[in-house]
Design a protein that fits this description.
This protein has 224 residues and is of the alpha/beta class. The chain has eight helices and twelve strands. It has two domains: 118 residues, Response regulator (Rossmann fold), CATH 3.40.50; 95 residues, Arc Repressor Mutant, subunit A. The strands form three sheets. The chain has a five-stranded parallel beta sheet with strand order 2-1-3-4-5, with helices on both faces. The chain has a four-stranded antiparallel beta sheet with strand order 6-7-8-9, covered by helices on one side. A three-stranded antiparallel beta sheet has the order 10-12-11. The radius of gyration is 18 Å and the shape is elongated. Bound molecules: calcium ion.
Length: 224
């Protein structure tokens, strides 16, 4: 899952970015409203964290402009404790949820998990499943049947990306865009490397293979 973080206070931005990255998210941090609009237009983010008080363009204006151009990416707004009106204004501007600063990282992570589930069929459960494969977004445990499978953070992220859209073929670029941030993605074969690792852990020990290569296009989860 890749997140656009829009927060002009560098200390808070660094704290949030570190916490999210430790939880396996890829994060691009920008520090004003204008950059937020540019980056969100260029990249298919899974979630956007948007502070209200921002230079150039404030968060409410940015959120409204996202929605006006048809961007449905879930937005979590950050508001100051003494600005209760902002919460209402934020929701009116098209934000999906808000969080009052200061907040605990645990709370932020829980809100983001809830937002990323919204609109999906399995919205009530932290579990995403395909055949006997299950991924628990709360505990980050991956299983086939009862067997617990240990994945590195980016292996988990690649799998989550495939699992959120099973049967659909995703190109290497589409996968990479949801797993790495702008600074860390630079080799085109990196997706293949992670797919190879996932196959070794998820498919090799089992009769039913789940990860399918679609030649010349990319990868998908499929029982074929
Ligand atoms: Ca701010």
């Amino acid at each position: 899952m890749r997140i656009l973080l829009v927060e002009d206070e560098h200390r808070i931005s660094a704290y949030i970015k570190r916490g999210l990255e430790e939880s396996g998210y890829a994060v691009d941090a920008v520090f004003n409203g204008r950059d937020a609009l540019d980056w969100a237009e260029a990249t298919p983010y899974d979630l956007i964290i948007l502070d209200i008080m921002l230079p150039e363009k404030d968060g409410l204006t940015v959120c409204r402009e996202f929605r006006q151009r048809g961007d449905r990416t879930p937005v979590l707004m950050l508001t100051a404790r003494d600005a209760i009106d902002d919460r209402v204004k934020g929701l009116d501007a098209g934000a999906d949820d808000y969080l009052v600063k200061p907040f605990a990282m645990k709370e932020l992570l829980a809100r983001l998990r809830a937002l990323s589930r919204r609109g999906s069929e399995q919205s009530k459960s932290p579990l995403i499943t395909f055949d006997d494969l299950s991924l628990d977004t709360r505990t980050r445990e991956v299983r086939r049947g009862e067997t617990l499978i240990y994945l590195a953070a980016k292996e988990y992220a690649v799998l989550e990306c495939l699992l959120r859209d099973p049967e659909r073929v995703l190109t290497r670029t589409q996968i990479a865009e949801h797993v790495w941030n702008y600074d860390s993605f630079n080799q085109s074969n990196v997706v293949d490397v992670y797919i190879r690792n996932l196959r070794r852990k998820l498919d090799d020990p089992f009769e039913q293979k789940l990860i399918q290569t679609v030649r010349g296009v990319g990868y998908r989860l499929s029982l074929k």
